[in-house]
Amino acid sequence: MNGAVRNPPRRLVVGISGASGVTYGVRVLEALRELEVESHLVVSRAALLTLSQETDLSADELTAKADVVHKLNDVGATVASGSFRTMGMIIAPCSIRTMGEIATGVTTTLLTRAADVALKERRPLVLMVRETPFHLGHLRTMTSLAEMGATIAPPLPAFYARPKTIEEMVDQSVGRALDVFGLDWAAVKRWDGLKGPAVE
């Protein structure tokens, strides 16, 4: 992965689509700011609806967390071109509709176009897919995307980290997704071996 871009600038494209779990996208933006990685944000209209239902943030407060904000229908944006160098893209959360558009290559917004760019340029693309249960069509779409080079990373809790709050569970999933880009976020609790008596 990322073979086409050596020593890419510390710049990541962040997509937030309309699935439940908008807090994952919020925490990605906050993590990138902590890590001093330039964020380029694209938000779907459905994501803004979800934002109003799941958080107390306004749209302006969300976009203020990004370094650069691109309009959903701005096909002339920098992130629509493979010549604009980035570390790749993460979509957090990623709706099934968004995943389906990316898989077919028939993109209708800047959000899915930017993901298509990541794939064609062989840059990491991480999709934090939010849906359960998956039916066979979902699974086949994920398989297709994995074969294209995408990383499918549903936000699942890691209980070995002994999370005490929802925020800790969110941060663990976000941090593990950022690992794909070689970004080491301090909020992640790393596995450091089995504790207690050895199991034979």
* Helix-strand topology string: EHEHHEEHHEHEH
Report how far apart the termini are: 38 Å
Please tally the β strands and state the result: 6
Q: What integer is the average pLDDT?
A: 94
Measured on Cα atoms, how large is the radius of gyration?
Answer: 17 Å
What structural class do the secondary elements suggest?
Answer: alpha/beta
Largest sheet: 6 strands, parallel
Which descriptor suits the 3D outline? globular
User: What portion of residues is helical?
Assistant: 25-40%
Work out the helix count.
7
Oligomer: single chain
SS strand fraction: 5-15%
In the sheet with the most strands, the strands line up as: 3-2-1-4-5-6
The low-confidence parts are none
How would you summarize the topology of this molecule?
Blueprint: E1 11-16, H1 22-34, E2 38-43, H2 45-54, H3 59-63, E3 68-70, E4 89-94, H4 96-104, H5 110-120, E5 125-129, H6 136-148, E6 151-152, H7 166-179
Parallel strand pairs: 1-2, 1-4, 2-3, 4-5, 5-6
Helix pairs in contact: 1-7, 4-5, 4-6
What does this structure look like?
- This protein is α/β, with parallel strands linked by helices and 200 residues long.
- The chain is built from seven helices and six strands, in the order βαβααββααβαβα.
- A six-stranded parallel β-sheet has the order 3-2-1-4-5-6, sandwiched between helices.
- α1 (22-34) packs across α7 (166-179) and α4 (96-104) crosses α6.
